Amino acid sequence: MNQSTIPVIETGTGNCHIYVDETADLQMAADIVINAKTQRVGVCNACESLLVNRRVKDEFLPVLAERLKEKHVEVRADKDAGELMPGAVPATEEDWGTEYLDYILSVKVVDSVEEAIAHINRYNTKHSEAIITNDYVHAQKFLDEVDAAAVYVNASTRFTDGNEFGFGAEIGISTQKLHARGPMGLLALTTTKYIIYGNGQVRP
What we know:
Elements: E1 16-20, H1 26-38, E2 47-53, H2 57-70, E3 74-77, H3 79-82, E4 89-90, H4 93-96, E5 104-110, H5 113-123, E6 128-132, H6 136-145, E7 150-153, E8 172-174, E9 182-184
Parallel strand pairs: 1-2, 1-6, 2-5, 3-4, 3-5, 6-7
Antiparallel strand pairs: 8-9
């Protein structure tokens, strides 16, 4: 990328987030987080960071902590989340921007969907981001304002994959905007040539 003299498609890193909104179905949220974090940890579409709305933290985080413990996931949490997740390690500034590719999850409590979006847009790698919510307005705001190749409502980030998107064998996942963005199949790496047969046509 640094040395090329022509545009290059970057299939970049995946510091992917899930935000659990105040209206989320918490059972569904826990299922999605466990899938996104532990189904395969060493892939670019695995969840690396979790944001939880303050209004549901007391109900959600202790239950999630137990399920993460069963999967041997280390939690690195801010102060508010750490108080509800026994055994959590205090998170550092570096944790918010780290793609672990391991059984490690950073967890932060936020006050609003606006704060979640701001955090994601600051630390993400523009790969895959998800909101768990039953609030249509919050879902649309998240979809509109989060800058990422794939943005989900009530689904695991693990679906960001060329084959899952119906493109055949995956070539990569572009985290930029020129020209392909998101999962890429062969079509994204090909160009077009027009071949025209005529018998004397001219344009009037």
